[in-house]
Specification:
mainly alpha; two-stranded antiparallel sheet; globular; 202 residues
């Protein structure tokens, strides 16, 4: 497991990694398993079903915070977790955004902007992973927090539109900015990695 889905500085592990089968990675897998159940609840009409969907979303989101804390405190950080954690986050956030847009509660342009950034960065992780892993940053954590709060407000029944718009707007801006920052760091990682390999061949 890694810290929450985010984007920043380049991490080079020096200590031996924990085994893949650990509680932090298990919580990440649980988050993935909860996604289809959350989507099912989201599309059932009725106030209490919407509250149940919100509860499921909150529980799934909390596993991200808990598994990150466990991974750091118990030295359970693994490359498997570093890859699976952002995938689980994107699955949860992406399904929530698409579901809300399909239900007519969220503008499609917001969903598309966030998903393009999230999916693009996830694919980029696989491209540069041979050169290293880009770990979480404060900007990435802020992005995740804002996204979770904004989505929660949109799922929650009630007249919270002004607050929803403000938080979702902030989440969208931070998502795009941290994405650009990630691209810059990934480019440096790729460039340094190629230069290092070229030097080894000499």
């Amino acid at each position: 497991m890694t810290t929450s889905a985010g984007d920043d500085p380049i991490a080079t592990p020096v200590a031996p990694q924990a085994g893949v089968l650990n509680i932090a990675n298990l919580l990440t897998v649980v988050r993935l398993v909860l996604v289809p159940f959350f989507v099912w609840l989201l599309f059932i009409e009725g106030t209490w079903w919407r509250v149940a969907a919100l509860g499921m979303f909150v529980v799934a989101s909390l596993t991200d915070r808990v598994d990150g804390e466990l991974a750091r405190r118990r030295n359970l950080i693994t490359d498997f977790g570093k890859i699976l954690d952002p995938i689980a986050d994107k699955a949860l956030v992406g399904s929530a955004l698409v579901g809300l847009s399909l239900l007519g509660r969220l503008w499609w342009w917001v969903t598309i902007a966030i998903l393009v950034r999230e999916l693009g960065i996830t694919l980029l992780r696989f491209v540069v992973i041979r050169y290293g892993v880009i770990a979480a940053s404060r900007g990435g954590k802020l992005k995740t927090t804002l996204q979770v709060i904004a989505i929660g407000l949109y799922i929650m029944p009630g007249p919270f539109d002004p607050l929803r718009w403000i938080v979702m707007g902030a989440a969208t801006v931070v998502t795009v900015v941290t994405g650009l920052d990630y691209l810059a760091k990934a480019w440096r990682l790729w460039k340094d990695g190629r230069a290092s390999r070229a030097a080894e061949r000499r």
